[in-house]
């Protein structure tokens, strides 16, 4: 009866604090490494008969009397370690050391626990238990996981702020009783550290999330004020709330101080630390005052087969068709507007008396998806990645008079009504080949029905056609980055639009936006500490760029000119940088490349 009353009293006490007690049994040894509750005010004074220890401190309050442990209470890999001897003595335990066995023995009220250094194993009344972490020695002081003591001696504890309050007289057990209502799941424990407590304006703040969960099942982390740097002086409170898969939560907060001393302005910080693919704020209007690089270009002889009109396809038919020989590039971007599923095909027909060979060089296919910007971006990413890996390279042989559907990924999945597909690809043929882009209902054989399909009129303002010299190469030997500079592209002023022919209507076609053109920008002398960035000038843009041997994604969804995507930054020496990019289907043009000195000095 006495044990039942004591357990009930302990449960009521801990419920008042809103936390779960440490279990008296070895199978419930959750580390109290971090607080379960956020406290923005000072924690209440410790009740009489309690012992309070503090994370990352040697401070200890024993029934309100302050003293110090031999070593600070520390957290290592999510486990809280304490000085065994000094804490055990404070809790009223007897501590002895046996030199022959190199064991430290802690005893209290009929319970005896034995510890050794460099092992997770310890003994409680002769029974071997396992600690959450390995005991270690800190300058002659044995450090052990706190829960090895709380479990061995049935010590309830409360977690509050950075304090751990132990109740040495809470259970009065013999070491064999179990909690009346064992809990099958412990709440998660939110905790993080910062690398410093005081920072200058613009100084990077490093956060280390050390939150834990007994099932390793934290499903959500909700941060407040976890900025990488701060730009106003004062006190900042950073908060973290974690949630486990059962919906249980825990919160922790820490205050840091921001001094009035400036390390980096907000603009310089963004230029220094925004990662590749990340965006930062710029003044879209001010960019027009940047010095423009002297843009001239040479070309590579790729014929562009642009099939994007009609973009919205309302019936089965041939979308575009032309005979090409040698290097060819394809830009395909269409939407199925039938009431049923459809498939898109690019068919190659050999009109010659001898066999023809097509070498697939690079390719990126995306969709079907109802989101044209997503399809355009992913196709471009995959295309540029294939230029690095060669993963799409293969050879296709076509007999005289034979028709073959190229690029199986293009039609592998049927497009539902409203879905869009996009493809960027490069091929080279050793003979003239007739290429036909078409759409048919999903269950129709394209080769069988192709002779009876109608030619579809573009109708819309979206262009289709064949365009020569569709790789533009800009190689610059001047030094870039000593001042703010820009390279405007796809604007039809600095960078003129292509003129070509619609091979089906035998009419002039203008490649508005130069979609499908591959730009190769070769900068032989980029100054040290230069930021290279992408700035959209025509609205929403979702694309990618190959920078040296890496593909960087570009995502601008707000349609503003007042942001830029980081593509690359040079280090402490001059570098050669090569960028490849092609205007993304489904996005808006024009755009500019920016070259900015990082330092404001």
Automatic annotation (TrEMBL):
It comes from the Bacteria. Residues 1-24 form the signal peptide. Residues 65-154 form the Copper amine oxidase-like N-terminal domain. Pfam families: Cu_amine_oxidN1. Residues 166-190 are annotated as: Disordered. Keywords: Signal. This is Copper amine oxidase-like N-terminal domain-containing protein.
């Amino acid at each position: 009866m006495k044990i039942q009353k004591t357990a009930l009293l302990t449960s009521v006490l801990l419920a008042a604090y809103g936390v779960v007690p440490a279990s008296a049994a070895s199978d419930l040894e959750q580390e109290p490494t971090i607080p379960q509750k956020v406290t923005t005010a000072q924690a209440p004074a410790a009740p009489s008969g309690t012992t309070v220890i503090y994370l990352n401190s040697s401070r200890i309050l024993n029934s309100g009397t302050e003293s110090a442990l031999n070593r600070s209470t520390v957290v290592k890999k999510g486990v809280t370690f304490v000085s065994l001897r000094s804490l055990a003595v404070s809790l009223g335990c007897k501590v002895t050391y046996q030199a022959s066995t190199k064991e430290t023995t802690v005893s209290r009220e009929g319970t005896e626990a034995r510890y050794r250094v460099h092992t997770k194993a310890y003994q409680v009344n002769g029974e071997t238990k396992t600690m959450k972490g390995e005991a270690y020695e800190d300058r002659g002081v044995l450090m052990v996981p706190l829960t090895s003591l709380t479990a061995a001696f049935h010590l309830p504890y409360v977690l509050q702020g950075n304090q751990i309050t132990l109740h040495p007289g809470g259970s009065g057990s013999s070491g064999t009783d179990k909690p009346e209502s064992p809990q099958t799941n412990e709440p998660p424990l939110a905790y993080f550290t910062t690398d410093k407590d005081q920072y200058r304006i613009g100084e990077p703040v490093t956060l280390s999330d050390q939150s834990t969960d007994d099932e390793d099942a934290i499903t959500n982390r909700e941060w407040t004020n976890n900025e990488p740097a701060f730009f106003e002086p004062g006190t900042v409170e950073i908060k973290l709330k974690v949630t486990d898969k059962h919906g249980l939560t825990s919160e922790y907060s820490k205050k840091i101080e921001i001094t009035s001393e400036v390390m980096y302005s907000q603009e310089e910080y963004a230029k220094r630390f925004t990662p590749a693919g990340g965006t930062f704020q710029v003044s879209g209007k001010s960019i027009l005052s940047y010095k423009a690089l002297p843009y001239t270009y040479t070309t590579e002889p790729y014929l562009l087969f642009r099939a994007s009109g009609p973009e919205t396809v309302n019936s089965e038919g041939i979308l575009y068709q032309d005979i090409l020989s040698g290097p060819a590039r394809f830009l395909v971007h269409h939407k199925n507007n039938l009431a049923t599923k459809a498939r898109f095909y690019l068919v190659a027909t050999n009109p010659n008396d001898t066999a023809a060979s097509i070498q697939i060089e690079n390719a990126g296919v995306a969709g079907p998806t109802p989101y044209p910007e997503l399809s355009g971006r992913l196709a471009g990413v995959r295309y540029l990645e294939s230029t690095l890996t060669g993963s799409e390279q293969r050879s296709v042989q076509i007999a005289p008079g034979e028709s073959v559907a190229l690029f199986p990924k293009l039609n592998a999945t049927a497009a539902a009504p409203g879905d869009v597909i996009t493809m960027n690809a490069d091929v080279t043929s050793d003979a003239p080949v007739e290429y036909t882009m078409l759409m048919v209902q999903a269950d129709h054989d394209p080769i069988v029905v192709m002779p009876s399909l109608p030619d579809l009129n573009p109708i819309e303002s979206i262009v289709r056609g064949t365009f020569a010299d569709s790789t533009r190469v800009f190689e610059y030997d001047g030094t870039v980055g000593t001042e703010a500079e820009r390279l405007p592209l796809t604007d039809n002023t600095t960078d003129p639009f292509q003129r070509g022919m619609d091979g089906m209507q035998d009419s002039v076609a203008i490649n508005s936006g130069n979609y499908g053109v591959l730009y190769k920008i070769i900068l032989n002398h980029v100054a040290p500490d230069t930021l290279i960035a992408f700035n959209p000038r025509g609205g929403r843009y979702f694309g990618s760029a190959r920078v040296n041997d890496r593909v960087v994604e570009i995502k601008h969804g707000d349609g503003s000119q007042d942001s830029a995507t980081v593509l690359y930054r040079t280090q402490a020496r001059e570098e050669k940088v090569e960028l490849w990019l092609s205007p993304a289907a489904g996005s808006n043009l024009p755009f500019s490349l920016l070259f900015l000195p990082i330092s404001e000095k």
